[in-house]
Design brief:
138 residues; alpha+beta; 3-stranded antiparallel beta sheet; 2 helices
Length: 138
């Protein structure tokens, strides 16, 4: 693999982790949302990734990257509470709370942040190795 392909691979991974961080932040921001209608309450969202294999013009050299397939809503059940005094309560006195698990989202955020940082380190190391290679020619 060409050293320059490492920048493409790490860059696509950083872009994917950035999307993951943004999605997690959105989930955490809406974790306490409430609605009287189960179809209107916020549901946790999660990005779906896949490996993207990229061929070069010659066909002999390949590079992998990260491709975002989309963002899916969690199918986990909603939390239902009987709170007839709540202004959003339905005719039975129930309110529906988001299915966001704050602990799971915090772990997801830490994992995405570390993955992003690891890709930054890969870029720095690759840059340093390329600079050292250029220094050999002097």
């Amino acid at each position: 693999m060409s050293m320059l392909k490492i920048f493409d691979t790490a860059g696509s991974a950083m872009s994917a982790q950035s999307l993951r961080l943004n999605t997690t932040a959105s989930n955490l921001a809406n974790a306490e949302s409430v609605s009287g209608d189960p179809n209107k309450v916020y549901r946790a969202r999660h990005p779906v990734f896949a490996t993207a294999l990229q061929e070069t013009k010659g066909g002999a050299d390949h590079a992998a990257g990260v491709k975002v397939l989309g963002i899916v809503e969690s199918q986990a059940p909603l939390n239902v509470q009987h709170r007839p005094e709540h202004p959003e309560a339905d005719e039975n006195g129930n309110v529906y709370l988001s299915n966001v698990n704050a602990v799971e989202e915090m772990v997801n955020m830490m994992s995405a942040s570390r993955s992003y940082q690891n890709n930054i380190e890969i870029l720095k190391t690759t840059r340093d190795l390329m600079l050292q290679t250029l220094q050999l020619g002097r």
